[in-house]
Amino acid sequence: MVTNLTVISHSLAALAYLLLAILIAGKYLRRDVDRSMLLAALVTSVWSFSLVSQALWSEPGFFLRYLLELVRDASWIAVLLALLRDASRTGQFMGKVRHALSAATITLVILLITFGVLEYAFGIAIVDGKTKVVGQIALTLLGLSLVEQIWRNFGSMGRSSLKYICISISTLMAFDFFMYSDALLFGQIADSFWDARGFVSALVVPLLAVNVVNTRKQPIEFQLSRTAVYHVGALTFAGLYLILLAIGGYYVKVMGGNWGNALQVLFVTGSIAFFVLLATSQRIRARLMIFISQNFFDYKYDYREEWLKMTRQLADLSDSPPLPERVIRILGGLVESNSGVLWLRDEDGNFALQTAVNMATPKYTTIDSQSELIRFLQEREWIINLEEYRQDPVRYNLLEIPDAITKFRDGWLVIPMYLGNDLYGLTLIGTPYAKVELNWENFDLIKVVARQTCNLLAQDDAQSRLSRAMQFEAVSKASAFMVHDLKTLIAQLTLLVNNASRHKSNPAFIDDMILTTEHAVGKMSRLVDHIRKPIDDSDETGCVDLNCLVTQLCEQHQKGQPSPQFKPAPAPVFVDADQEQLRSVLGHLIQNAQDATRPEGEVSLTLKTSEGQAALFVQDTGSGMTEEFIKFQLFKPFESTKGLTGMGIGAYQAREYVRKIGGNIDVTSEPGVGSCFSVRLPIAMADTATPRGKYDAEPPARHAK
């Protein structure tokens, strides 16, 4: 039953590969890949037929079947190498990879064939059966490594049909790998693997046929990255390591006697731990990447990868880690280092330490702006290698390095950071994981990245300065409003003091003085409360009778020239507002109208109502304002026409409060004719209009002037 199954499976494989060879030979022989695939299909068909013949007639012998299997494996690896050869006619790196992989394959096949010929023809057994199995496993690992390399670069190939050939060849190689690994462990090839081998070989033929049909145009564009080569090398090393581990474990068990099993377990455990240590070592990875860059690539860096990595790190808007630390890690990563120090120019022009990564900070860290190093770097954009400097200071013109740098024992490279043409900072990079041979390419990339990161550092510093300036501006703005209110109180109290000597015997003046002082104390108390806890948008409001409030304000300003004349509304008009703030707003408008009008002029106030709105018109026959002044300066804070005596916030504060309670202030004016301020306020609902006390107002201070 086993023999019949073997015959059926390998007969099917022989027929399938023969048909595939006919398909390829009939139409598609333009490329090296097509020709190599034709050869692989023919060899596989002959190999499958030899297994059928051996099962039926016991011929051919082991050596010929072994030879055919070696050629079959080598032919499929040649298909993968042909893919590289067609796409690498102009790349030095691609040529090196192709030659290395080709040499490894040819060398291994020749060695295995030579050993087999010597044993078959002359009886010289150089290698035993287990070594032959190890050779087969090595061939399958080489094939899988090539497939993994091609698959990893699948996105850059631009040929979706290439996945079929990858899946097909990897299936053949993976099946042989598991079959021979099982044979290496148990001493013989399992019947289940052997009988199913023909079916597996025939199963992938349709995928190969699809690949042949779909790849009829120009050769694919293939490109390998350093990361791909690193992963292929790591995968190959891992496979070889596991093979050696299995062989070593077997011999330890055989030669260990009674302790064989225990020694085998100990050997395998220690070997696995050592392998994990190698796989996780950043130092080993750095050395391997440097070796790959130096021996397989024209350029040391994959610039696309380096730029994308830097962009991802700098685009992170979080503060973990902070930007200076990220800059150090970016620059250090270019030369396989994970430590560094960053200095930036401070307000005094010196260079202050910002942060240190994986380096102990000495006591003194500031670099003087007048130091010889700073003058040297301001003249020329040099990267200083401290190892070279210690060996040959003359190379750097006997430059004196500040103690703030030399105190870092692991310091290696001093990188200047320029903002435009000015030196903005310094970065000291620590000793790398592996020895890095620096050349023009390293220095050029470091300089470019240093300038880019320096721009980000300068932008971050400017943002911090702007934020602090905005905070100071907010404080200044709040202080200006407070000073404006204090000036009003000071003016009232000053008038009382100036008139006290003339009216101190007048009881009415004494009453006005008490009321004015009481009002000033209350207003200053509210101002102190506002400083301690700023009032938010939920200020307490109440219904205020505009007729009554404006009448009181006109009485208060009667001593001013010209005296304001008020024409009230025929009925009470109530608005929902804070009485003190509304009094301050309207009082400011009346005072401004008097200040802008000559004594012989007129200031009139008229209150009207219409459709739920109250409109108070404050008119004067003063100097007037231009349209440009009204549009761009009148309501702009800190813009005053009164010189040093004005704060420039009265009109702005008035309009902001009126808008806050749902109204607005409009202005019409003409130079030499006068101005009219229209204050529109929403009228409060009739059922809630409970007016405040008529005499809860600012005292008139009739005798204050």
TrEMBL record:
It is an enzyme of class 2 (transferase). The keyword Chloroplast does not apply. It catalyses: ATP + protein L-histidine = ADP + protein N-phospho-L-histidine. Its EC number is 2.7.13.3. Keywords: ATP-binding, Kinase, Membrane, Nucleotide-binding, Phosphoprotein, Transferase, Transmembrane, Transmembrane helix, Two-component regulatory system. Gene3D superfamilies: Histidine kinase-like ATPase, C-terminal domain. Residues 481-685 form the Histidine kinase domain. Pfam families: HATPase_c (PF02518). SUPFAM superfamilies: ATPase domain of HSP90 chaperone/DNA topoisomerase II/histidine kinase, GAF domain-like. GO terms for biological process: phosphorelay signal transduction system. The chain crosses the membrane at residues 6-25, 37-57, 63-84, 105-127, 133-152, 164-186, 198-216, 228-252, 258-279. The keyword Calcium does not apply. GO terms for molecular function: ATP binding; protein histidine kinase activity. This is histidine kinase. It comes from Marinobacter zhejiangensis. The lineage of its organism: Bacteria, Pseudomonadati, Pseudomonadota, Gammaproteobacteria, Pseudomonadales.
